[in-house]
Design a protein that fits this description.
about 140 residues, alpha/beta, 5-stranded parallel β-sheet, 6 helices, about 50% helix, about 15% strand, binds D-ribose
């Protein structure tokens, strides 16, 4: 199950990502927001981090205008590894090396075509499982 949320700056891009998830038949929980009316991104970051922490969802997607604020907020939560990605190379690497559990995107930064490819890469790339990477991940929260 994928948790997804956005602020007003990410709303339009979220609609494109939801279309992709629907087409792929991927299950998700949409935690809002539901329009371009201004909201506070930390509130939406927290909804997704909570869904991951309580085990309801395995991965999350967070979108704000730049992807920066919402990823900073998400990364305050222990055990959350939110990666702001603007290309597929980083989306692949952050799954392989960091076992990132949240992908952050900037709705005012990446276009919908690239964003969908980044999401696809993120969701379909496994963690490498290499001991050196696991050790580094352990050090983050240690
Ligand atoms: C909202 O205008 C904007 O600040 C927000 O979406 C995000 O870019 C913050 O980092």
């Amino acid at each position: 199950m994928i948790a997804i949320a956005c602020d007003h700056g990410g709303y339009e891009l979220k609609l494109e990502i939801l279309k992709y998830l629907d087409e792929k038949g991927l299950e998700y929980k949409d935690f809002g927001c539901d329009s371009t009316e201004a909201v506070d991104y930390p509130v939406y970051a927290r909804k997704v981090t909570s869904a991951i922490k309580d085990g309801t969802c395995e991965k999350g997607i967070l979108i704000c205008g730049t992807g920066i604020g919402i990823s900073i907020a998400a990364n305050r939560v222990p055990g959350i590894r939110a990666a702001l990605c603007t290309d597929c190379f980083c989306a692949e690497a952050t799954r392989q090396h960091n076992d990132a559990n949240i992908l952050a995107l900037g709705g005012r930064v990446v276009g919908p075509g690239l964003a969908v490819k980044i999401v696809d890469t993120f969701l379909n790339t496994p963690f490498s499982g290499a001991a050196r990477h696991q050790n580094r991940i352990n050090l983050i929260d240690g």
